[in-house]
Amino acid sequence: MAEKPKLTTVLSQSHYAASFEAESEDEVYDPRMEALVKSMLTEIGEDPNREGLRRTPLRVAKAMDFLTSGYALSAEEIIRKAIFEEDVREMVVVREIEFYSMCEHHMLPFFGHAHVGYLPNGRVVGLSKVARVVDVFARRLQVQERLTNQVADALMDHLGAHGVAVVMEASHTCMMMRGVQKQRSTTVSSAMRGAFESDPRTRAEFMAFIKG
Question: Would you identify the CATH topology of the domain 9-67?
Answer without folding.
Answer: GTP Cyclohydrolase I; Chain A, domain 1 (1.10.286)
